[in-house]
Amino acid sequence: MTHAQTLQLLEQRYAHYNRPAFIQDDPIQIPHRFTQRADIEISALFAALLAWGRRPTIISKVTELLRRMDDAPHQFVTQHQEEDLKKLLGFCHRTFCDTDLLYFVHWLRWYYADHDTLEDAFLTGNTQRERLENFHTLFFSLPDAPPRTRKHVATPARGSACKRVNMYLRWLVRRDDKGVDFGLWTRLPMADLICPIDVHVERQARQLGLLTRPVVDWRAAEELTENLRQFDPADPVKYDFALFGLGVEEKR
Name one Pfam family in it (predicted). Predict the structure, then answer.
């Protein structure tokens, strides 16, 4: 397939999937239930970082988690009393359990005491790799951070492709008029975003010659994104919609 043909295919599938109908079956529906910025940020963080397995299961588990927070995540994390934390006990999705959830809530409370938006946590560094590494360091900077929780927030420092964190940033940073991604954060450039790589994206990217690195790690995420920048330097991760959608279509 030529460069022009690949671009045409990606643009067609991007236009097909980047529309409101995409929301109802995807974990991005979770933050779309809220209108306040902090509620969107927090609910999106849980929806993205807990995105393991089938999408219906992810949506169900994050819905359960937010219900335990009275469907008011910002109010819960900033104003909860010790007794309220009992509502979180027993929650578990895969290997993310209540010990991890309690630390997330603890960190969010600490963070929002001095910041109005989680965007601030992702701005330290000159490159996206540095920003994600610095976010990871900040997230686990509190003295009572459980070692077991570290595996639930990826970092390029460990070679991870950081799929879930990159997806979270796509949701909050990408701006267009289609109504899927939020575009709430304006200080982190869309051009710097790194494409999330799940199994669908990986398979399609390899078939289209956009990914050649044999393992899916941070360098693979950079390779794919750099190739996508050839098609749209200002917004390379918009093609996440296309690659994911093509993968789902092929699986059917």
Answer: DUF2400
- Measure Cα distances from 112 to 11, 12, 68, 171, 230 in Å: 39, 40, 20, 20, 38
31 in Cβ contact with 40 (< 8 Å): yes
Share of the chain above pLDDT 70, in %: 99
CB 9 within 8 A of CB 243: no
Per-residue DSSP letter, 30? T
Query: With a threshold of 0.90, does the pTM exceed it?
Result: yes
Q: Taken in order 193, 31, 18, 182, is the CA torsion positive or negative?
A: negative
Q: What is the mean pLDDT of the chain?
A: 96
Q: To which residue do tokens 């994911």 refer?
A: 244
- H/E stretch holding 10 reads helix 3-17
Query: How many angstroms separate the CA atoms of 27 and 113, rounded?
Result: 28
Tokens 């959830």, located at residue: 101
- Rounded Cα–Cα distance for residues 101 and 121 (Å): 19
